[in-house]
Every structure is written in C-alpha cells, then in structure tokens.
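quick one, 396 residues, struct below
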Amino acid sequence: MKITEVKVILTCPGRNYVLVKVMTDQPGLYGVGEGTINGSESIVAETLRHMSHLLIGRDPQRIEDTWQLLYRQGYWRGGPIFMTAIAAIDMALWDIKGKQAGLPVYQLLGGKAREGVLVYRHAFGRDFLECEDHVRHWLEQDYKVVRVQVGPYGGVGMIGEHPPLSPGTPPTGIYEATPYLLNVPKMFAHLRDKIGMEVELLHDVHEQLHPIEAARLAKELEPYRLFFLEDPLMPEHRESWPMLRGASTTPLAIGEIFSSRWDCLPLFMNKWIDFIRICPLHIGGITEARKILTMAEPFNVRSAFHGAADMGPIAQSASVSVQSVIPNFGVQEWTSYTEATHEVLPGACKVENGYALPNEVPGLGIDINEDAAAKYAYQRNFMPLVRRADGSMHVY
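---
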C-alpha cells in the first residue's frame, strides 16, 4: 500500500480549520487529520503542502517511521507549526490503520481503560450571579466539571479596548493584574457559598500574571478547592515553578501551548504540576501524545487535554481516543460545534452524562465533506492583541 496524495483543505464553517486527507492506492481507503492552530492556519497549511512531497509513495502503515521522518528531515526540529503539521499527518495515518483493521483507533492503542472521558465546559458572566447561573446551566446538563471566570476572556483584568488599527485585524484589549487578582478569590468565595464545595470547579489564568502574582493567587484560592488552576505562569517562567508550587496545595496545570516532550519533562521530573494540558493536535499527534502521557504516569501527572473551540472534531476524536486508554487520565476540555462544522466534518464524538464517548466505527470516525468545505472560504484571522494600561505589550 502506498500514499498517492495528501490533500490540504482550509475551510471556515464558523471558524477556520486546517484539514488533510491522506489518499492511498487502495480504492476508497484514506485517512483524515487536522492541523488547526489558532491564527496561523494558512502557515500550517503551507507547511503541510511542503511536507506532502516526502510522503508520496510511502507506506502509510509505517506510522512511527513516518513521524520520525517528518520530525527530523528539516534539521530545524519542532515548534508549534511543524508539530501541528506532523500531528495532522499522524492522525490521518492512524485513521487509515483503523479503517484497514476494521477497528476504532482507541482499540489499536490498547482498548478502553474507562467507559467514558470526563469533560469540562466553560462558564462565564458579567458578574458573580451570571457566572453562577452559567455553572448551574452546565450542572443541569449533567456535566461534572466547570471552568469559571467573570468578564471577557482574561477576566476582569481586561479593563478596556482599543479599536482595530486596520480592517481585518483584531481590537487591542487593555489588561491590568490588580483588579483580576482582587476579583478571582471573591468569585470562588461566592460560588462555593452558593453551589457548595462538592462541585468540581477550575480556573484559567491564561498566563497573565508575573510569578509572584501567580503564587499569591494560588495561595488565596487554596480554601476553595479548585480542580486545578490552569496556566498560572508562562512556559518561559520555568524557573519560577518551585516558588509557585511551594505557595499552596492548589493543583496546577499547564501545557496548552507546549509543542514538545522537552517542554513537559522538567515539570514531570520535578513534580511541579498535577495536570498536563497538551493535546495531540499541537504536540505531534496521537503517536507523541501517548508517549508523553507514558512519561507523565510515574510522576503522578494526569492528562487534561486542551479542547477549546480552536480545534475541530478530528482533533477532538484523536484526544478522546488517547484519553480513553491511558491510565493517568484526568479530564478533557470540551466544546460543541456549529451545524456548518458538522456538515463539513460529520461524525463528532458524543457526550453522555458529562462523559465523552470514543467513536466506535473504524478509524477516528470522522469524515471530511469536501463539497461542504468548499462552501466556507478561509477567513484571515489573528489572535487577540493585549496591552497594559501604559501601552506596553502584554501576553494574551
């Protein structure tokens, strides 16, 4: 069996997705993958087109060898663009192998370690009461874990906004840490008072704080029993993790923008985190995600795969496949999709009683409707821009 073509598809059924179809010389046998990276979709698409020339004529069954080829062939290894492109090909090859075997991908990875994958949803509001109502909304739909924040993304630290400088570019948010640091503990005090201590709640800092500010926040949130505090530091602040870890017993999570096992390993070995937030989409695919979680297991680090709306149903299915089989599972971030997305990418995983279920059909269980994808043209997109009140740039 040989690879005959790698189709790269950019589509925007509500938001941009980078999709691939790896075609083979076996009639009707192909695999689907995803290489979406928020704000850089066209760059990944071009990387995939470049890589595809190395794949024509190769045996798609040689997944590990193909992964090593794509990782090592360029000499300048890694980085989010390359690793996301590799992930798209890797998912497609696992999809082919599952279809060839007549088994869902999770069966090829060893079979279920659990009946369903616990997921969490996002709750937000303009004030504590609206946030509380949104938490209750998800609880009434049988979700067991909820991420919470008050205000826009970034919370009440986002104190203003400047309009876009030119058409097609985003506005610039204005962020200050003090209102954020004062508000978040009050939000959790309100929620615990009204909803109780048993409900699993978590919060995303989104790397907005300096290390000493993050340590203070983790300490002040300790009485409210968070499921975890996400991204309290930027990955670049690795040397500050011991200070943060020593500040409280609030569980810590990071990894959403990691693109390498080498980003993860020091955090595992030093026991600085409790949950790793990678996902197959941005870390090199199913092959690499499984290896990283194997490395995490002896250090008692659990998975909490990224799963926001910046990834589509193919990447979501890959995440559920991996998290269905690993022993050190924690939770899966979850999103729902528009009708247009389901039209382009039929077969998304289902959720029952707060647990995602892996697809039971051969492969990843998702297809790409190319005619539907062609109806939704790619829309140039950028990540949000954020500055401090004094005008200096700030991380989003």
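The CA atoms of residues 295 and 357 lie 25 Å apart.
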